[in-house]
Every structure is written in C-alpha cells, then in structure tokens.
Amino acid sequence: MARSLGRIFNGLQRLGSVSPIQTQLRYPSTSVYQPVRRRSVLQAVPSFLSPKPRDFSLPNPSWGSELMQLYERYNSQCEVETEEGEKQEGPWKRVPSYNRALKYAPCGVYLSKIIQSKARLFTRNINDPGAAFEYVLFINREEQKCVGIFQAGHLLEGPPGHVHGGAIATMIDTVTGTHASFLSGPVVTANLNINYRRPIPLGSTVLIESSLDKKEGRKLFFSCKVTSTDGSKVHTETTVLFVSISASHLLLGG
Ligand SMILES: CCCCCCCC/C=C\CCCCCCCC(=O)SCCNC(=O)CCNC(=O)[C@H](O)C(C)(C)COP(=O)(O)OP(=O)(O)OC[C@H]1O[C@@H](n2cnc3c(N)ncnc32)[C@H](O)[C@@H]1OP(=O)(O)O
Q1: From the CB of 178, is ligand 1 less than 6 Å away?
Q2: What is the ipTM, given to two decimal places?
Q3: CATH number of 2-251
C-alpha cells in the first residue's frame, strides 16, 4: 500500500513537473491565492472535488498593526513597476499557506483526502484567528533569504505572559524548513540548535530571518534569528540542518 502510494505521489509530482514550493511561488504574489498551475493539471476533475483551500497567510482581523505594517512592506516588493509603468515580479514572493502540507503538491488536495485525511499542519490547525500562530512568510530568491513575520497568540503561553520555547522552535523550523524546501524540494530537519536570548511577550510580533549558510550534497545548513520587528532586540539565534529526502522517505516511513 505504502509503496503504491509512493509511486502515485512520485508520478503526480512528475506530472506537475515543478517542486511543491516552486509551484506555489508561480502564483502572482500580491494577489489572493490563484492556483494557476493546479487549475491546468486538474481541469478534468469535477469542481465539487476541488474546494478552494483557505490561504492562512493573508491578513485577517486579528492581525495587529506591526504584523500588518511588515506584511505591507514585504508585499509591496512582490510586484514592482518598471520605468515604463509596467508591473513585473519584484524581489520577494509571499508564500501561501494551507492547513495541510500536501495541498502544496500538484494534485495534493486529492492525495490529502487519501493519505491521513484528518492530518492538519501543526501551525494552521486552530480556527480562531489570532489565538495561536499568525504568520506570513516571504522568500527572496536572489538573496537566498526567507523572512517570517509572526504574531504569537494567547494559546502559545510558556512562561507566564510569554511564548513557549517549543512554539518558537516550531516557527523557526517552519521558516527555515519552507526556505529549504523552496531551495531543494522535500527535506526534513536533522538538527535544530537554539539559543534563547530574550523571552517573547505573548501578543507581540517578531521577525524571523533565515539565511542559507552552505549546501553540502543532501545537507543544507541555515542560520536563523528571531528579533523584534525593528531589529533592536535579539530573541533567539539558531542553526538548523536539513537533509533532502525523496517523497517515498515520508510515505514509506524513512
Ligand atoms: C513530500 C513532502 C513535500 C513537502 C512539501 C513541503 C512544503 C512546505 C510545507 C509546509 C511548511 C512547513 C515546514 C515545516 C518544516 C518541518 C520539518 C520537520 O519538522 S521534519 C520532522 C523532524 N525531522 C525528522 O523527523 C527527521 C528524522 N530523521 C530522518 O528522517 C533521517 O535521520 C534523515 C533523513 C535526517 C537522515 O537519514 P538518511 O538515512 O536519509 O541519511 P544519513 O546518511 O543518515 O544522513 C545524511 C547526511 O546528514 C548527516 N546527518 C543526519 N542527521 C544528522 C544530525 N542530526 N546532525 C548532523 N548531521 C546529520 C549525516 O551525517 C549524513 O552526512 P554525510 O552525507 O555523511 O556528510
């Protein structure tokens, strides 16, 4: 069963012909979710089987002014105007975000109904806006950087009034993991090493910046910093190692 699912998944990935992250990044970054590639792959599928998934990385009423300001700052650099007044892709891309990782893959919506259909992405499984992880990620291909803007909700408490260290680690893993997937396709975290420097108050917004240090074969080494939004306070400093895997590594249990 697992083997045949692996074959289906690999086949579907070949059908899509681009990696999951590359697929999503083809969508016009300043617009709401527009599944250009997915539509062409799935045209023949009845529409009742393809509900439009919610993109959690778009603003909602729980977003505070800091999250909104930073979102707008990066989003305004996703599409720029040439001197002739034409619009073209800018240096940054907003990364859409759904409540199942499989929805990123070509035909993923259908696979996600077959494989562990109740599974939900850890950071996107609370429906109450603002209660837990509110965040948006942007990627800059040229500078090989990824930033996350993260507003921590009241359900993420660790030390009284402050964010749980595991929730911070989750967000660091999410930003660097998305960055690594974008650069290299499917990966898993092999090592995550965090120095917690200052606690993060619940309800506040922080900036998470990931950069690729080096790539050696299947291994990708990243540094990641969590700071206040103006960069004046460092909350954590992290190094992360990701290892590239084939899709069957996950489907067949490693
Ligand atoms: C189909 C998927 C599509 C995905 C699309 C996603 C889109 C984005 C979606 C949503 C965004 C959310 C993003 C969230 C991201 C979250 C990521 C996680 O949390 S992952 C869960 C936690 N991690 C694990 O469960 C790993 C468990 N470990 C393993 O599976 C294996 O140990 C693995 C793959 C890491 C290595 O196993 P081997 O057998 O394949 O390879 P070997 O030879 O052991 O290692 C390869 C190289 O790496 C080094 N290495 C391995 N582990 C190391 C370690 N812990 N420290 C240092 N080096 C290590 C080794 O020394 C070796 O190096 P030398 O090639 O010899 O130079």
Answers
A1: yes
A2: 0.93
A3: 3.10.129.10
